[in-house]
């Protein structure tokens, strides 16, 4: 089986490793990939999406796995182009990927299907936004488009709302697009991942990420400074409620609206005092949740994705280890405001009791690894208890060093 994974980050490194460990022993390729990924998946000599499709056809790729979301909505859409070329794709069509790409689309979808979510108003200008907010602080402002995780601001007061509106609606930091003014919800967050195949689904191990840069959930929002995953993260009863009120109506809604979906769908939820509510959908696995979840996956993930992409959900092909998984991110100096590249990384080879996934690294010819991005590495440990997994992940992460390395010391320890 020849499998090509699209993406280049820590999530894709974890996905490629999990696919490589599948008993069906697929031959792996990655686009655009990274130096670390190229140790297990061959690079593809193309630059654009149309070239990639042509290359996959020529090289008889059996399965394309969408790791990263951007290609799902680029040009005609990765999955749409794969379908035309007759290549099974694990990842949804462009029209379905609007669930992530457009917050206006996803909000309307949620409301249409009676799925619990925060109330929101869509606006075009700063004046309309301020009118929609009124006196209601804190408020949540969401840019209606892909913004690399930076399009959402939880604003405690008018000054912070004004600053965000200036950046997004006046200076157009993310380009043209509308804005959602949303009610601010409270409660712990949880990330639920469903593998969806048309009208069927399988839920993977629940996870939670740590979005703020500093200990005790302080500092700016980041792409995620760490994650925990475990079946024990939420009760079976709560998972059941989430299935009934959120996952099933979503799957039915997609079918009812003829939005083709074969791939992972990520439900970003807030466990509010009124029950779980959807904060966002993402048409992919979470990053860094993927790095925490993948080590728990047993069985044949490659075959599972191939059969799923062909339209058959086969839950019997995989199962999930019990216990806990903790992923600790090592980020470069200045992250998330700036990223520093080119600092030598030492100690990766000293890590013995954890997995190391590369998010932003490069390898020099002499084998030396250097930083190349904001989030650099994820160190992931598994154990029976959360405390043991966290202790192990931090102990192993402490063996790795580079100039200005940042790591939250409470990942897996701070818990709701
Ligand atoms: P997103 O970029 O959509 O993942 O949102 C980033 C973060 O903003 C979420 O993980 C939440 O912590 C927060 N957030 C988004 N929507 C809301 C909301 N309605 N109420 C409170 N916090 C929110
Ligand atoms: N961990 C958040 C995300 O992947 O969007």
Question: What can you tell me about this protein's structure?
Answer:
This protein has four domains: 2-90, Rossmann fold, CATH 3.40.50.20; 119-183, 2-Layer Sandwich (Dna Ligase, domain 1), CATH 3.30.1490; 188-320, ATP-grasp fold, B domain (D-amino Acid Aminotransferase, Chain A, domain 1, 2-Layer Sandwich); 324-397, Alpha-Beta Complex (Glycinamide Ribonucleotide Synthetase, Chain A, domain 4), CATH 3.90.600.10. The chain is built from eleven helices and 25 strands. The strands form seven sheets. It has a five-stranded parallel beta sheet. It has a five-stranded antiparallel beta sheet with strand order 12-15-20-25-22. With 416 residues, the protein is an alpha+beta fold. Strand 7 (139-143) and strand 8 form a beta hairpin. The structure holds adenosine monophosphate and glycine. Glycine is lined by residues 149, 209, 224, 282, 286-287, 289.
Summarize the structure.
The protein has 416 residues and is an alpha+beta fold. Helix content is 27%, strand content 29%. The radius of gyration is 21 Å and the shape is globular.
What labels describe this entry?
binds adenosine monophosphate, Dna Ligase, domain 1, 11 helices, binds glycine, 25 strands, 4 domains, five-stranded antiparallel sheet, five-stranded parallel sheet, alpha+beta, 416 residues, single chain, Rossmann fold
